[in-house]
Specification:
Distance between the termini: 36 Å
Largest sheet: 6 strands, mixed
Strand content: 25-35%
Oligomer: single chain
Number of domains: 2
Order of helices and strands: EEEHEEHEHHHEHEHEEHEHEEHEH
Number of strands: 14
Length: 311
C-alpha cells in the first residue's frame, strides 16, 4: 500500500478539519479525492505530506510512518500545488533544476532529469523564459515539471487545471495519464468532476473531515442509486399528472417548469419503463434528451445541494 491514513484527527481550535479520517491508496492508483470547499481535502493532503501536525491517528507512506524528518520518504513524493509555486527570478530551466536539486545531488543525473521533465511538459522552447513571460497554462506546466523532475513514485496534484485554456488543460490531463502509465501513483483533487471521471480509477468523496464514500465511478453511481437523466420539452402536465410522476418509484429526482420536465431515474429503472408510464396514463410528450447520471450527480447527492460559504 502506498498511502494509509488511520483515524487521523486534526483540529483548528473549535473546527474539526479531519474527524477520524481513514484512507487507503494502492500502488498504481489514480486516486480522486473530492469534497466541497472546507471539507478537509487540503488538510488531508498536508497531513500525508507531514506539512502539519495532527492530534491523533497515523499516516504511513510506502508502508512506513511519515514524519517531518523522513526526507527519504519525501524524496519519493512529488507535489504540484494549486498555486503556481516557482521563482520569478529564475528561468524555466533554472526553476526545474532548483526543485530537482532538492532531491538529486548528482549534476549529470539532475541535468538528464531536468531535460526529461521539460520535454515531458512541452516547454523546451520556453526554457530560457522567466515565469512572468509565460501564459497561465504554461505556468501550470512549469509547476508540474518542478514537481515531477526527480521522478517521484507518488505525486499529488491539487487543482492542476484551474484557470487554464482547454488546450493546456488537455495537455496536463494527458501528461498525468502518461505519468501513471510510467508507474507513478497519482492523488488528484479538483472541482472538475469530468476530469475525475476521465482519470481516476478510485474516488473518495469527503465532507466535514470524514470519508463518506469510496469506490470506482460506476460503483459510486450504483451505491447512491444514480440512474439515467431524462429531459422532455413541450409538455403540459396537470397537477394530477405532476403528482403521479413525482411520486412514482421509477423517479428519483423531479423538476417541472415552463413546459420542460427533468427527471433522474432510479438506478434500476430503464428509460423504456418511464416511457411506458407516460403512455399508460396518456401523458403526451415532445422532444426527449437522455444522458447517463454523472459523478457530479453523485457528489451533490452525497454532500448536498445547498450553497456553502467559507472564509
Amino acid at each position: 500500500m502506498i498511502v494509509e491514513m488511520k483515524q487521523v484527527v486534526k483540529r483548528y481550535n473549535e473546527l474539526v478539519a479531519l474527524d477520524h479520517f481513514d484512507l487507503e491508496i494502492q500502488k498504481g492508483d489514480v486516486y480522486g479525492l473530492l469534497g466541497p470547499n472546507g471539507s478537509g481535502k487540503s488538510t488531508a493532503i498536508h497531513s500525508m505530506l507531514a506539512l502539519l501536525k495532527f492530534e491523533k491517528g497515523e499516516v504511513n507512506l510506502f508502508g512506513e510512518p511519515m514524519k517531518p524528518n523522513r526526507y527519504d520518504l519525501k524524496a519519493r513524493v512529488g507535489f504540484v500545488p494549486q498555486e503556481v509555486s516557482v521563482a520569478d527570478e529564475l528561468t524555466v530551466g533554472e526553476n526545474v533544476d532548483y526543485f530537482c536539486g532538492l532531491y538529486i545531488k548528482d549534476k549529470n543525473e539532475r541535468k538528464r532529469l531536468v531535460q526529461e521533465a521539460i520535454d515531458f511538459v512541452g516547454l523546451e522552447k520556453f526554457r530560457k523564459f522567466r515565469p512572468q513571460k509565460l501564459s497561465g497554462g504554461l505556468k501550470r506546466r512549469l509547476n508540474i515539471a518542478c514537481g515531477i523532475a526527480h521522478k517521484p513514485e507518488l505525486i499529488f496534484f491539487d487543482e492542476p487545471t484551474v484557470a487554464v485554456d482547454p488546450q493546456s488543460r488537455n495537455n496536463i490531463l494527458e501528461g498525468i495519464k502518461r505519468l501513471n502509465e510510467e508507474g507513478a501513483t497519482i492523488i488528484y483533487t479538483t472541482h472538475y468532476m469530468e476530469e475525475v471521471e476521465q482519470l481516476c480509477n478510485t474516488i473518495t468523496i469527503m465532507d466535514k473531515g470524514r470519508a463518506l464514500i469510496t469506490g470506482s465511478n460506476e460503483e459510486l453511481k450504483k451505491s447512491v442509486g444514480i440512474g439515467d437523466k431524462v429531459r422532455i420539452q413541450d409538455m403540459s402536465l396537470s397537477a394530477e399528472e405532476q403528482e403521479l410522476l413525482r411520486g412514482n418509484r421509477l423517479v428519483q429526482q423531479y423538476d417541472y417548469k415552463e413546459g420542460t420536465l427533468d427527471v433522474m431515474l432510479d438506478k434500476d429503472a430503464k428509460v423504456l419503463h418511464f416511457l411506458n408510464l407516460l403512455e399508460d396514463h396518456d401523458i403526451g410528450y415532445g422532444e426527449m434528451f437522455i444522458e447517463s447520471g454523472s459523478l457530479n450527480d453523485v457528489f451533490l447527492e452525497i454532500t448536498g445541494r445547498e450553497l456553502r460559504d467559507h472564509v
